[in-house]
Specification:
six-stranded mixed sheet; 39 strands
């Protein structure tokens, strides 16, 4: 009985120890699985031993796992394009590794290169491609996903093209073109050990002119964003063209006139000249006469390039044609000339004028002035009379004022008077003439102190100015009251005609019935004369009687 009790107590103590020990935690060093969201993921640009978290890496880089749970772990790696890159899933990878259980211990490292995945995606000019990395690893409690977002560059090498014999005219020289398919960067160009650099923007192309040696030339173009990206091209030795001077020609222009109507005053004709070769020396516009020697209108014209010569003023010619180097004429106002060598191309421009050239001169006439006096009272001392002359035609030759006597020959007072224009001749001093009239070319006289003359052709218009002078009898002015208007006196001259009553009569006519003071004057004068005659007769009789 006592023995059973000891055994029972022993078993009870052992069980208690096992149960209690179950709830006691083990030391950390003895735990193979510390639990929790364990492990760290780092992106290291190629340094397998480091633990740097680099946000900018090259296109080839390492992913590193630190401090994952002890034992075999499975990790899935996914790379996705992040804005602005886009492109979705770029690359996935699943593999197993052994976790060490220590937080600072490198558990695994794998290298990745996204070059192929990013070839069709355009990089951001300054940063490159934006990528999100997701790593899902087993053996973690809670969330077993790790995320990293970073930029990669140096994924795309440059596009390089080299062309030999690229000098002028196919002479020696290498033209190297470099297109940057990555971020903004500086490229190193190494030609046979001679190094230069070219800074090229993302997506841009630079052209580099390099010498061409007699042997093969090796050219290396290295990316500044990723020195591991180098493009090498070899330019083989080639026999290039010799350096030759460009072949240039020139063009001359001469002017010829033909036809019965060709102008005789040697007028100037004008031309315009234009050449396709921008390096040609061109004279335009060109002024030339038929009497001038041929002129050079274009020089340094590249062989095979063209120039056009156009006549802009042909002087009213009926036809224009051009000949080149004595060839067949071509009708038209222009010709196109193409030098084929260094010689001068001779262009002759021919203008044809049909018929006689009629130059119409303006039709002008002239005006003469003559002076005539009439009437018994005309002055006998041959006085001078004056006239003023004015013409509408400003180009007419006018004499004004004009002084003329009745004894003078007719004077030309206006010449070169255009047909259809008028001149006015005005007498300014008539010496008291009782009347003035003008007659033109023997026509009917026109009363007044002036006349307007309009030449109708190239002949002379003959103007005659006539002044009439009537004499006064006894210098007596006789007035009467008009029967119909007693308040209206009338002045008359009594000789050689008299106005008796209201009509003119000569000195022997009888006045018609009516009160007229002149009738009494005539009668009275007659009586006085009769009385004198009788008185004279009586005195004579008395003398005879004595």
């Amino acid at each position: 009985m006592r023995r059973r009790s000891v055994v029972s107590r022993t078993l009870l103590a052992l069980g208690t120890l096992i149960v209690v020990s179950t709830f006691l935690p083990l030391p950390a060093s003895a735990s193979p699985d510390p639990g929790g969201n364990n492990g760290t993921i780092k992106v290291d640009g190629g340094d397998l031993q480091g633990n740097d978290n680099n946000p900018h890496v090259g296109c080839g880089f390492n992913i590193e796992w630190f401090g994952f749970d002890e034992g075999t772990q499975t990790s899935t790696v996914t790379f996705e394009g992040q804005a602005p890159t886009g492109g979705g899933t770029l690359l996935t990878d699943t593999f197993d590794f052994q976790g060490g259980g220590s937080g600072g211990q490198l558990d695994a490292s794998k290298s990745y290169d996204l070059s192929a995945a990013l070839q069709s995606i355009t990089p951001q000019a300054n940063q490159g491609w934006h990528v999100t990395l997701t790593v899902e690893t087993t053996g973690s409690q809670g969330n077993d996903s790790k995320h990293k977002t970073f930029w990669v560059s140096g994924c795309a090498g440059p596009t390089v093209n080299a062309h030999a014999c690229s000098g002028q005219g196919g002479t020696e020289g290498i033209t190297l073109s470099i297109t940057n398919n990555d971020v903004d960067q500086t490229f190193t160009v190494d030609q046979d050990g001679t190094v230069s650099s070219e800074q090229i923007a993302s997506g841009g192309t630079a052209t580099v002119e390099l010498p061409q040696p007699a042997t093969d030339s090796t050219i290396h173009v290295t990316s500044g964003a990723n020195p591991n990206l180098t493009v090498t091209t070899v330019v083989p030795a080639l026999a290039c063209q010799e350096v030759l001077s460009p072949v240039v020609g020139s063009i001359t222009l001469d002017k010829v006139l033909a036809g019965d109507g060709a102008p005789q005053d040697d007028p100037t004709f004008t031309f315009a000249v234009a050449c396709d070769d921008a390096s040609a020396t061109v004279t335009s516009p060109v002024s030339i006469k038929a009497s001038d020697a041929a002129q050079t209108v274009a020089s340094d014209v590249g062989a095979g390039t063209s120039c056009t010569v156009t006549e802009t003023d042909n002087g009213g010619a009926d036809g224009t044609s051009f000949t080149v180097d004595g060839g067949a004429p071509t009708s038209g106002d222009h010709v196109t000339v193409t030098p084929v060598d260094s010689s001068a191309v001779a262009v002759v421009a021919l203008n044809t004028f049909d018929g006689d050239l009629v130059v119409e001169e303006p039709v002008v006439g002239s005006i003469t002035l003559d002076k005539v006096l009439a009437g018994d009272g005309a002055p006998q001392d041959d006085p001078t009379f004056t006239f003023a002359v004015a013409c509408d035609d400003a180009s007419a030759t006018v004499t004004s004022p004009v002084s003329i006597k009745a004894s003078d020959a007719a004077q030309t007072v206006a010449s070169d008077v255009a047909v259809g224009t008028s001149c006015t001749v005005t007498e300014t001093n008539a010496h008291g003439a009782s009347g003035t009239s003008f007659a033109v070319n023997g026509g009917a006289p026109t009363m007044g102190d002036h006349i307007v003359v309009t030449p109708e052709d190239g002949s002379t218009a003959a103007v005659v100015a006539t002044n009439t002078f009537e004499p006064s009898v006894l210098d007596t002015v006789i007035t009467r009251d008009h029967p119909s208007d007693p308040a209206s006196p009338q002045t008359v001259v009594t000789d050689p005609q008299m106005v008796v009553g209201d009509q003119t009569v000569d000195g022997t006519a009888l006045a018609r019935t009516g009160f007229d003071a002149r009738l009494f004057l005539v009668v009275g004068t007659s009586l006085i004369l009769a009385g004198l005659v009788l008185l004279r007769t009586g005195s004579l009789s008395k003398t005879l009687n004595d």
